[in-house]
Amino acid sequence: MNEMFVAHLYTQVKQAHEDIQQLTTSKNTLTEVKGELERAKEKVKESELTSATWSGSLAVGFEDIRTAMLDEYDDLLTRQLTDALTTIDAKITALQSDIQGMERAIKMQEDEAKDKV
After folding, report:
1. Cα 107 to Cα 101: distance, rounded to the nearest angstrom
2. Nearest to 93 by CA among 101, 32, 8, 7
3. Neighbours of 27 (CB within 10 A)
4. How far is CA 111 from CA 1, 54, 67, 71, in A?
5. 0.85 exceeded by the pTM?
6. Which helix (H) or strand (E) holds 46?
7. Deepest in the core among 4, 54, 92, 116, taking most CB within 10 A?
8. 23-48 confidence digits (pLDDT tens)
9. How many contiguous H segments (helices) and E segments (strands) does the chain have?
C-alpha cells in the first residue's frame, strides 16, 4: 500500500513541476504582452491635437475616443493583466508548497520502509 502511495506522490510531484513550468511560460508571455501594450498605449497619445492643428466637434469626438482608449489600456494593464500575473504567482507558490509537502511525505514513507527492513 505504501509503495502505491509513494508512486502516486511521485506522479503528483512530477505533474506539479510540469504545471509550474507551464505557468512560468504563461507568466513570461503575459509579461511580454504587457510590455507591448504599454508601448502601444503611448501611441494613442501621438499626434497631439491642438486648436492650431484641428478643432471643432470632430476633434472633440476624436479626443473622447482617445481618452476612452487610454482608459481601456489602463484597465487592461493595471487591473486585468496585473490580476492575471498575481494569480499565476499565487498558483506557482501554492504548487511549490504542495511539492514540499509531498516530498516530505515521500521521505517519511521511504524512511518507514527502511525501518521495517
Report:
1. 10
2. 101
3. 17
4. 15, 79, 64, 58
5. no
6. none
7. 92
8. 999 999 999 999 998 888 888 877 66
9. 3, 0
